[in-house]
Amino acid sequence: MNELENLFAGLLKKPYQKELAMTITIRRIEQSDHEYFAYLKSMCGQATYFLYFSDDIAGAMVLHNFVEMLRRYFHKDEVKLNLHDATIQLKNAYLLSIFEESQSIEKPSASE
Prior knowledge:
about 110 residues; about 25% strand; elongated
């Protein structure tokens, strides 16, 4: 392989992308107890990705799909979900499971 091929091979591996954690922030919509939006500012700061969702099964599905879409697009193994306001009380069990899954991914197990 010549130097140019080595350079391209190194760029295709993209190891630098896995160094930074990706954090999606959840905020409650004002004057609503069951409507939220999730957002992620892109790593380069040129874009922000938004999602509107409600505290029900449909909201759980779209939030899960949003997280997976961003994780795959940015080639991230780890995605953190952050509740912006500590008073947010999600009621839907499926939404809560997404956060529990996120927490289990964030914390390495004792066996690692």
